[in-house]
Input
Amino acid sequence: MSEPLCQLEDFHFTRLAVQWHAPKESGKFEINYSFDYSIGQHNTEKNRYRLAFRVGAKSDTPEPVGYQLDSEIVGFFRFPDGTEQDKMDFLIRFNGCPILYGILRGQVATLTGSFPHKKLVLPTFIMKEIIEGVEQQKAADAKAQKRVPKALPRKKA
Output
């Protein structure tokens, strides 16, 4: 059997905050999910990566209703020696994010199983769309940073 191309070596949570807000009125509301991630490559061992994956969830109401989630899970991944850089850059996103999200889903469901409402099972998503959305947002943010005019130097009086 060949070595997996994207091997999760370890993971930990740096943040996992879940709150339950009982509704004051009956009615339906939507939960909005947010995603982000950041990637770091080891300085000397170029086949090792750190991936921090963040997920947030909150109601679309002025006052919080239902579950509110703020989380970050960090995974440490290794690729076989000799793996091409382009392949690692692709796989850390398209394999690493779903791996970490799966771990997060299980932990959140376990944790919220003892909350006053039914447990929170995070929905499944098409991770390709999530990753592409994050990348588009990062590109837009970088573009906006370039457009911000720099402050003019102050003249001394």
In short: Helices lie at 85-94, 96-112, 127-147. The chain has one domain: 7-124.
